[in-house]
Amino acid sequence: MKKILVTGGAGFIGSCVVRQFISETSFSVVNVDKLTYSGNLESLKGVSGNPRYCFEQVDICDSEAVRAVFGRHNPDCVMHLAAESHVDRSISGPSEFIQTNIMGTYTLLEAARDYWNALPEDRKAQFRFHHISTDEVYGSLEESGFFTEETAYQPNSPYSASKAASDHLVRAWHHTYGLPVVTTNCSNNYGPYHFPEKLIPLIILNAVNGKPLPVYGKGDNIRDWLFVEDHARALRLVLEKGQVGETYNIGGRNEKTNLEVVHAICGILDELVPTPAPHASLVTFIKDRPGHDYRYAIDASKIEKELGWLPQESFDSGIRKTVQWYLDNQDWVAHVTSGEYRNWIAAHYEKGHS
Asked: CATH topology for 3-190+225-252+293-312+339-348?
């Protein structure tokens, strides 16, 4: 039975990975999370009492604390998802992104390398360090073309630059020190438990509450959308079957303009929560984001051909499930939007609890 150390396991994608491991496998999970503003243990209420799950409130930049976690739990693999991830926040305050995404990754790599070097040979051969990254490291596409694993890096925001740096560190630790790593770069995720600063949950919640639906520029920026459950399944597959030293791009083959995404949400809400005026009447175009990349699109043929992964959700099915989840989980939404989830965390966990 494997034990997986997941960093950022209280975040949007990380919590989905943890929930899947606990509900669909016999693996144990150690969730390491600093619990910044978007870390939410309420997203893990369904697994928090499971004997195969434990939580460690640790900052990945804290070398001593990170090494202590390795010593206490003796994991077989690391899945590194902890990161500051919101582009807008990186523009207004890049320092945290540099610290967490670059220095945090460095600290984790060094702790993992020392731990791996001390393992018995059989466990050493099985150990993996799986680094989870983003397609934004590749920069921006025009109307045609796709990001592949060979696409040159050209990050355009402080966020994507910090993630590109972390990708390079992981690659260097493999080639220099032999650390057995795999890396994945994914397209835009969406789905349940998404913190409402991001486009899709923000639009859902604003529309339900009759608030303006902010859309950058003309809404013609294009993203490839990936349902978070599909992404988590892909991550688990790469961890178990991916080739050491390889990179795998994970995408949903669901290119949509931001305005198309907003209109799709509005159409579903018109059906499920009808109002006198259509929800799309709330769309409000705002000044575009500085350096806003025009288009992202991933070629996921490598993971499809080599590992047999395919997304189970289309955008239409995934976005309907997502809208319905937010309508059905108003307690979670209320706690997040009010900040009440922090009180829940304080009531259920003390620092260092496991």
From this structure: Rossmann fold (3.40.50)
